[in-house]
Amino acid sequence: MIIAVDGPAASGKGTIARALARHYDLPHLDTGLLYRAVAATVLRHELNPAKEADAVAACDFDDLLLADPALRDDEIGKVASIVSAHPLVRAALLQRQKRFAAQEDGAVLDGRDIGTVIAPNADAKLFVKATPTIRARRRHAELHAHGSSLTFDQVLADIRARDQRDSTRSTAPLVAAEDAATLDTSFLSIEAAVQKAIDLVEAARARKAAACG
Ligand SMILES: Nc1ncnc2c1ncn2[C@@H]1O[C@H](COP(=O)(O)OP(=O)(O)OP(=O)(O)O)[C@@H](O)[C@H]1O
Ligand SMILES: Nc1ccn([C@@H]2O[C@H](COP(=O)(O)O)[C@@H](O)[C@H]2O)c(=O)n1
Fold first, then answer.
1. pLDDT of 207
2. What is the ipTM of this complex?
3. Which atom of ligand 2 is nearest to 77's Cα?
4. Is the CB of 161 inside a 6 Å radius of any atom of ligand 1?
5. Is 9 in the pocket of ligand 1 (CB under 6 A)?
6. What is the Cα–Cα distance from 185 to 62, expressed in whole angstroms?
7. Is 212 helix (H, G, I), strand (E, B) or coil?
8. Is 15 in a helix, a strand, or coil?
9. What pLDDT was estimated at residue 146?
10. Which of 22, 85, 111, 127 has a CA between 20 and 30 Å from the CA of residue 117?
11. For residue 3, what are the β-bridge partners?
12. Model confidence over 88-130: pLDDT tens digits?
């Protein structure tokens, strides 16, 4: 079974995708990490994230980088959303994600274009959302716990800028797939959001089984 989980920054999609992977015993890929690794490589080599050729050169990153907790930094998220708008960067990372989705036993992937581009035939598609203020509150608390001194207003401004960039780019913008179920986590605890996600996956599975006769 392939499960696609998409949504904007700090909506809770990673938390839900990890929980679904545990529940169904499937491998999980946080595709945002790939764009963050490109961003970190651009910064490390003092390249220009706005220049497509510079960003493409950074797609050849060392896989060990994916385990680096520094990838979660806010600044890297910001640069990731700049490099991810380049069509050639998306093309460079495409096959790797498609291969992950095509594993024999299935997989859970989370990102921005999983249900639309990476796994359009996924068995279940979720679009996870929450209001910008609630997402900023969660991300601010998370960054604070890791020693960041960013203010709530700075985090909210970053979330809004990322939403704007991610949903208006020409290639693979952040948008719910037509056949995705929307899950608004604004007023749900993590436990309630995960349970709702499992219910939605089960409903999608049942629909698919009924359609197959
Ligand atoms: N339903 C929820 N209620 C409260 N906090 C939540 C909920 N879901 C997730 N969180 C918390 O919000 C923060 C962001 O969640 P998460 O990392 O899952 O979001 P994300 O959409 O994957 O973000 P990103 O796209 O930036 O990777 C985390 O600290 C997480 O523990
Ligand atoms: N499938 C994806 C995943 C991520 N991005 C871009 O990367 C940025 C960082 O992603 P996080 O999920 O780790 O926050 C994000 O803002 C997107 O610009 C993407 O384009 N496609």
1. 92
2. 0.98
3. 9
4. no
5. yes
6. 34
7. coil
8. helix
9. 87
10. 22
11. 108, 124
12. 999 999 999 999 999 999 999 999 999 999 999 999 999 999 9
Nearest C-alpha to atom 10 of ligand 2 is from which residue? Answer: 32
| pLDDT given at position 209 | 86
Query: Which tens digits make up the pLDDT trace of 12-53?
Result: 999 999 999 999 999 999 999 999 999 999 999 999 999 999
Look at the block and give the residue holding tokens 């990673």.
14
Query: What are the residue boundaries of the structural domains of the chain, listed by start?
Result: 2-193
**For the segment 9-20, what is each residue's pLDDT rounded down to a tens digit?**
999 999 999 999
Pocket flag, ligand 1, residue 192 (CB < 6 Å): no
Q: Which CATH number fits domain 2-193: 3.40.630.30, 1.20.1250.20, 3.40.50.300, 3.40.50.2300?
A: 3.40.50.300
- Nearest 5°: phi and psi at 209? -65, -40
Rounded Cα–Cα distance for residues 12 and 86 (Å): 25
State the DSSP string of 151-209.
-HHHHHHHHHHHHHHHHH-SSS-S---TTPEEEE-TT--HHHHHHHHHHHHHHHHHHHH
Backbone angles phi, psi at 170, to 5 degrees: -75, -35
The 3-state secondary structure of 43-104 reads HHCCCCCCCHHHHHHCCCCCHHHHHCHHHHCHHHHHHHHHHCCCHHHHHHHHHHHHHHHCCC
Closest protein CA for atom 1 of ligand 1: 190
Looking at residue 148, what is its pLDDT?
87
